[in-house]
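Thread title: Can someone regenerate the structure for this chain?

I was given the following input by a collaborator and told the matching structure tokens would be attached. They weren't. Posting the sequence so someone can regenerate them.
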Amino acid sequence: MARQPKNQHVCQQCGFQSLKWLGRCPGCGQWNTLVEETRERQRATSSREPMPPTEPQPIDGIISEESPRLSSTIQELDRVLGGGVTSGSVVMISGDPGIGKSTLLLQALHGFAFTERPILYVSGEESVLQVKMRSQRLGLSSSHLFVAAESALENILQLTDQLNPSVLAVDSIQTVYTTQLESAPGSVSQVRHCADRIMQEGKKTGRPTFLVGHVTKEGTIAGPRVLEHMVDTVLYFEGDRGHAYRILRTTKNRFGSTNEIGVFEMKDTGLHEVRNPSELFLAERPVDTTGSAVTAAIEGTRPILVEIQALASPSSLAVPRRTSTGVDHNRLALLVAVLEKKVGLSLLHQDIFVNVAGGVRIDEPAVDLAIASVVASSVLDKPVDPQNILLGEIGLTGEVRAVGRTEARVKEAAKMGFRRCVLPQSNVERLQRVVDLDLVGVRSLSEVLSVLFE
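Best answer:
Regenerated them for you:
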């Protein structure tokens, strides 16, 4: 008799497998993530014959060729991708529900359709009529963009064989299932198997493939983490649904930088590119208000001016709060300790809140000087001159250290109309003079506060 398939419990977060149910996954430590699935025999993968082995080559004898890229006509998206999408690459777009993933994907596919080659958009969550209504709202129409409402993997592969599209988009990968597995759509085995089949077909034909992925409440891609390792590029679409601004950033890119970001504004007619993010983030900046300062952060190849805000208020708690949005919480705690120890500010009984206006997240230490300055501004109740821009990293001894890409930051500040830049003295000595911008070099945090609040 044929051996009956056994059941197993699979973690829906990391893919850990267990023969019995466990309350907590030993692999990722999450609770109640193990789901019972039917373990099939190797029927899904046994039919695929292995490829013949390749001969190893010396690295200096390999001829490198520039990979051709296909433009989406959306400059912000192309910048994040590294100049466009490459042949055979697999790109995953993830983000919170309703953030605009499908809108961005539909606009990008409409741009690819200018090549006058067929483009296939497979929607597993919406009907073709719903996709048509969205395209009308966005003002998009092309006879080369084909839409299909399908969730079965076998049918999707059949459609790609018949149409032979130049670009394939699947929205979303969690809705795709194969009849070779009995587990429910969205389970670890289904997502992993379907993504692998679609990826292999794209690599074999040289077809760029876009996959839309759901995210969990922690902000990670739903399903096994191995899915992020399988694809070539992982894009995260971030933003608050209550605000119109969206930020597209990449956490993995085999064909470009992972530091670039794309800024969009959501309107009734879809996502619109923001060519000058600095002007956008500083549009509503208050003037002559305590706890506000501007700094320049480098995102990829371009500098972006952002506003750092801080609020210090008396605390009634035994342990005062240190809350940060857009900056690292541990970095804020470090800067508060330096202000107390090296400058002498009394922050022991103060609740401190720090925010980066516009929903941007900054991870580089070049914004330390701005964070410490706005906290001191709120505590001392003295505003920072709105014509100042602050740059610099702060050490544990209170010294102000040099930062990279200073010239690009200063030029962007001069272009936006700022008159003075407070930055490390070591940067001033190596920096060329910028027209209409005074450079004030500082060596310590105490010197910074004396310059700003004299």
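The longest strand covers residues 302-314.
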